[in-house]
Every structure is written in structure tokens, then in C-alpha cells.
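ok trying this again, last paste got cut off
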Amino acid sequence: MCIRDRNISTPEIFTRLWLHECMRIFGDRLVTKEDSDWLKSFICKVIGDRFHYDWSVEDTFEKRNIIFTDIYRLDYDVDERPYAVSYTHLRAHETRHDLVCRLLLEKKKKKKKE
């Protein structure tokens, strides 16, 4: 998974990232609604069994924000691979524009501390 430890602040965010990856790897390849519905049910079962969250299919896929995005980051370490990518969790109330503004403010605060 393309995310840095500092971007996973809670077990719920990790679970959402895992869900996001499952849907990108497996869900995007399914062509029938029946298969997609089965995968969603299976993922919710695994989330309950392994992550100990009681998320229904409706809550998980219709009400929760499971969007993670990789955007160009100006603050990547030189020692990292070129064109470093790190997922950033898009919070439920945020648009992509809000995310960019938040990251710019965080960077500005970090520079002020230095």
C-alpha cells in the first residue's frame, strides 16, 4: 500500500485503506452487479472478522468516505524513489481542493517551525 505511517492515524483509517485497495484490485475488475455485491458482502465480513468493525454493506459503500488519493507532494525525501507517491486520506467532508489547501497549510506550518 502506498501510504506513509504518519498518514495512518487510526485503525479505522487503516481499515478504510485496506478496503480501498481491495476495491481497486478486485472490485474494479468485476463486471456484474451480482459479483460486485458478493465482493462487498465478503469485504464487510472480513472487516468484521479481522478488523472487529461492524460495518454493513450500505454503511461501508454508500455512507463512508473510502477515497484515498495520491497527489504530487513537494515534500518527498530525496532518498526515496523518484516520483514518490503516498496516499493521503480524503476526509468525508473534503473535496480534492480542500485536501490540497490542507496539505499546503500543513507544509506552511512545518516551514514556520523550522
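PB: full thing came through this time. The mean pLDDT is 77.
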